[in-house]
Amino acid sequence: MNHLARELISFAVRAPSGHNTQPWQFSVDRDIIRIYPDLSRHLSVVDPDNHALFISLGCALENLSIAAAHQGLSARTDYFPPDEPKECLRVRLCEGAQENVEALFRAIPARQSNRGIYDGRAINESDLERLLEANPCESVMVRSFRVGHPDIEPIIGFVREGNIAQFNEPAFVRELVSWIRFSRREASEQRDGLTAQALGFPAIPRWLGYWIMTKRVKPESEAARQEKAIRSASALLLFIVRDHDKRHWVDLGRSFERVALVATSLGIAHAHVNMPCEVEPIRGRLAAHLALNSGEQPLLLIRLGYTRKRPPPSPRRPIDQVIMTPGRAWD
Ligand SMILES: Cc1cc2nc3c(=O)[nH]c(=O)nc-3n(C[C@H](O)[C@H](O)[C@H](O)COP(=O)(O)O)c2cc1C
Q1: H-helix or E-strand containing 239?
Q2: Which of 274, 310, 316 is the best mutation target for the ligand 1 pocket, counting ligand atoms within 8 Å of the beta carbon and taking the most?
Q3: On the CB side of 324, how many CA atoms lie within 13 Å of its CA?
Q4: Can you tell me the distance from the alpha carbon of 186 to that of 179, in angstroms, rounded to the nearest whole number?
């Protein structure tokens, strides 16, 4: 196995993914790295059409491209080429990087979702502008909403509605719980999913976590907790695709990951408040509220702000588990 390719893949897998499912596989063939969706890791309740899965692949692709540029290589990518036997993103590494990516590259291992309460400090205009300009894809629009500005109130209302709808749905809670790693042992054995520490509570046995999540957590209190978290932030960023298909979902992942890396390099924390994008009827009302054109879909919502507290990094599976070698079964 090519040493450089392994190195690049080790940066790709630091990408964020819904519930930290890490829904990707890779193969290496000389100067070509293929990224495959791992549909065995899909989230059938929260992401029935797999758009979040393909967004996660886009995040991995962006990290891979930045890591390649750091090595002086450009990553020419074909999206879902029809001549491939299996659906994939095909990345060809070529000599000559297009841009200086040092700050972005350093941000890859430092970036993380930070679900804590932020300190309320405002992001200045020029940094917010830098974040919006970091979006590399014309197929994706990014809109910002400042905490404290009246425009944000309806968006906070949609987050609240989404949160309540999700926590009122037993299948959503069951799926979420199946990806929470309540104990340190679960986290270290599986190396995926949402650890107790990443969610902001102490490690506990699974039976207790299951009981708390299914019997004690109430939709209204969860919504109030998220609202408080948003009001402690400085801004929300909403990522909108111009069309609702796999290519655009991958592009959205690239855009989001770029913006998250620039934010990290500026010392700005981020966390998802994605609920209104995940509940389809609410997403439709959000799109209507924003007067989006038909086809345009708001698919990712994050809050941004400052905090000194950092949770430990979320686990990742060893790259040998995600690199397919010839002869190894695919499914
Ligand atoms: C498409 C997508 C959707 C996500 N949705 C949520 C979400 O609704 N709530 C949340 O707290 N985190 C969400 N996340 C963040 C992931 O849970 C997080 O990336 C993952 O646990 C890995 O942790 P890390 O970002 O700290 O590396 C999402 C991430 C992606 C890429």
Answers
A1: strand 235-241
A2: 274
A3: 18
A4: 10
Q: Which fold has domain 3-112+313-324?
A: NADH Oxidase (3.40.109)
Q: How many CB atoms lie within 10 A of CB 312?
A: 10
What pLDDT score was predicted for residue 98? 80
Model pLDDT for residues 102-160, shown as the tens digit of each residue: 999 999 999 999 999 999 999 999 999 999 999 999 999 999 999 999 999 999 999 99
Percent of the chain at pLDDT > 70 equals: 98
Pocket of ligand 1 (CB under 6 A): 16-20, 52, 55-56, 59, 112-113, 115, 194, 271-272, 274, 314
Rounded CA-CA distance 157/180 in Å is: 26
Cα(194) to ligand 1 centroid in Å equals 9
What separation in Å is there between the alpha carbon of 113 and the centre of ligand 1?
Answer: 7
Query: Residue 272: what are its φ and ψ, rounded to 5°?
Result: -80, 140
Query: How does pLDDT run across 203-259, given as a tens digit for each residue?
Result: 999 999 999 999 999 999 999 999 999 999 999 999 999 999 999 999 999 999 999
Would you kindly state where each structural domain of the chain is located, as residue ranges? 3-112+313-324
Which residue in the block uniquely carries the two structure tokens 């040998």?
320
